[in-house]
UniProtKB/TrEMBL annotation:
Residues 378-389 have a biased composition (Basic and acidic residues). Transmembrane segments: none annotated. Residues 461-536 form the AMP-binding enzyme C-terminal domain. Keywords: ATP-binding, Ligase, Nucleotide-binding. This is 2,3-dihydroxybenzoate-AMP ligase. Residues 43-410 form the AMP-dependent synthetase/ligase domain. It holds the Pfam family AMP-binding_C. It comes from Streptomyces zhaozhouensis.
Length: 551
């Protein structure tokens, strides 16, 4: 296998499945894989273009030289705190510059950032800490009216492996919390220790999953650098590129499709949006002369309305990427005429495969498909329920393997066996139709997963929490079509007394430390669940009832 392992004793089972030697050799020979280290991206640009603007966060601005100095300082400080190659570190930050500083510093140490979302709470973070054995946790002081310091203290007390908690902002005088600001001032000697290898585990992304809490997706320096590089070439990025990060910075979409990494690697400028508000984003496009940004479909009608009302100067905007869920064709057709930029549809997954429409594709292709694979090395199959290939134009499940698609989940052999074929193809769970041109149209999913405006909600995980409610005897979560979000969630409950309301359920889940976006949008009480002939809950019958579910 072509990959180093994170810390483990000799003889232990591997944390994750690397690429077979034959495939690894093929990817190197084809030039997809190089010895590029993610931690070197800013260093190279600082040498070539030291005074060019690299990063903008509100009124704070960094040249490449200044960004390099701060990353070097944080690297020294984290080494001083005891972080070493292979250590896992949960990073749960919103769109702030400190995410960039911490992320690149961890890469240089060979430590592994675990990308957590700002909306995650105790249930999700405890799961990540347990599975990864994380030794440190990076949080904001407060975000979206939630005190992350209290959560961090809980996690540190519950998981002894978490030795360090680093806080961006006010540490509140807590003696066990390290202020991030202190890390930026470190002027000690360069850290020693074993440097990372290009085949090392570089980061862990989260899968929306279909069973239980999120699965962890291992990405290496080689495959993730190629992901960003190939996407950047298709998007024609260069030093003149100004990328606006609107969606959460920890999303794979925001990081490398081509996102932050592709932009910095091309010598461009990354601008961080503090929130996804269309008003905020359009003001930043005007102020910073943004050329490229990425949003999810639910934001599109709000952007169109905001642009019509406020008439901002969007003449710098060259490309608007839309992905994370399927974009309705009618919205796609409005983007060019109303925003004055090129639409690029994006269909990808943190597990790997990335599809983009091309900047020179015909308008009909851009407005009605979700792109085609970015690499000649991407292998795609579209199959029926029995695994047999279907002809172009027919719907089937998308299977894939390639130079930046994982071969197995992190520390999850059961999930790996369930989601991969014997010859290494990843079963995406997405239903697609492939055109003769290779472009894909997404038509649905075979997974029991709900895509609520780009947020992937695992029905099984939420159902497990619902069943913990004292009034709930049986629970099932299904998707209902929604014109704005694509899908909303409906919880069907069988109760042993008065049924709880949607508000009651939201409060209950909040108390259990579940992220707010996972709370059902609607709740409906049933006397009994419909069952299949083999005694399982019949979710197809429940979906047929969703139009009757009251808010």
């Amino acid at each position: 296998m072509d990959s180093a392992r994170s810390r483990q004793a000799p003889g232990d089972a591997p944390d994750w499945q690397g690429w077979p030697p034959e495939a690894a050799s093929r990817y190197r020979d084809a030039g997809y894989w190089t010895d590029e280290l993610l931690g070197d991206i800013v260093r190279r640009q600082a040498a070539a273009r030291p005074e060019a603007t690299a990063l903008v966060d509100g009124e704070r601005r960094w040249s490449y030289a200044a960004l390099e100095r701060e990353i070097a300082a944080v690297t020294r400080a984290l080494h001083g705190l005891g972080l070493r190659r292979g250590d896992r570190v949960i990073v749960q930050l919103p769109n702030v510059a400190e995410f960039v500083l911490a992320w690149f510093a961890l890469q240089r140490l060979g430590a592994v950032p675990v990308h957590a979302m700002p909306a995650h709470r105790r249930s999700e973070i405890d799961h990540l800490a347990r599975v990864t054995g994380a030794v440190a946790y990076v949080v904001p002081d407060r975000h979206a009216r939630f005190d992350h310091r209290s959560l961090a203290v809980e996690i540190r007390e519950a998981r002894n492996a978490v030795r360090r908690v680093i806080v961006v902002g006010d540490a509140g005088g807590h003696p066990d919390l390290v202020p991030f600001e202190a890390l930026r001032q470190d002027d000690g000697p360069p850290p020693g220790g074993e440097p990372p290898d290009p085949g090392d585990l570089a980061l862990l992304l989260l899968s929306g999953g279909t069973t239980g809490t999120p699965k962890l997706i291992p990405r290496t320096h080689r495959d993730y650098a190629y992901n960003a590089r190939a996407a950047a070439e298709i998007c024609r990025l260069g030093p003149e590129t100004v990328y606006l990060a609107v969606l959460p910075i920890a999303f794979n979409f925001t990081m490398s499709c081509p996102g932050i990494l592709g932009t910095l690697r091309a010598g461009g400028t990354v601008v961080l949006a503090p929130n996804p508000s269309p008003a905020t984003a359009l003001r930043l496009i005007e102020r910073e002369r943004v050329t490229l940004t990425a949003v999810n479909p639910p934001l599109v009608p709000h952007w169109l309305a905001e642009a019509e009302e406020t008439r901002p100067d969007l003449t710098s905007l060259r490309v608007l990427q839309v992905g994370a869920a399927r974009l309705p064709d009618e919205w796609a057709r409005r983007i060019g005429p109303e925003l004055g930029c090129r639409l690029q549809q994006v269909f990808g997954m943190a597990e790997g495969l990335l599809n983009l429409t091309r900047l020179d594709d015909a308008e009909e292709i851009v407005c009605t498909t979700q792109g085609r694979p970015i690499s000649p090395g991407d292998e795609v199959r579209v199959t029926d329920e029995d695994g047999r290939p279907v002809p172009d134009g027919a719907a089937g499940e998308l299977l894939t393997r390639g130079p930046y698609t994982l071969n197995g989940y992190y520390r999850a052999p059961r999930h790996t066996r369930a989601h991969f074929t014997e010859d290494g193809y990843y079963r995406t769970g997405d239903l697609v139709r492939r055109l003769p041109s290779g472009h894909l149209r997404v038509v649905g999913r075979v997974k029991d997963q709900i895509n609520r405006g780009g947020e992937k909600i695992d029905a099984t995980e939420v159902e497990e929490h619902l069943l913990a409610h004292p009034a709930v005897a049986s629970a099932a979560l299904v998707a209902a079509p929604d014109g704005e979000l694509g899908e909303r969630t409906v919880a069907f409950l069988v109760c042993a007394g008065p049924p709880p309301s949607a508000r009651d359920i939201a409060a209950f889940l909040r108390e259990r430390g579940v992220a707010a976006y996972k709370a059902p949008d609607r709740v409906r009480s049933l006397r009994e669940m419909p069952l299949t002939p083999v005694g399982k809950i019949d979710k197809r019958a429940l979906r047929a009832l969703t139009h009757h579910a009251a808010p």
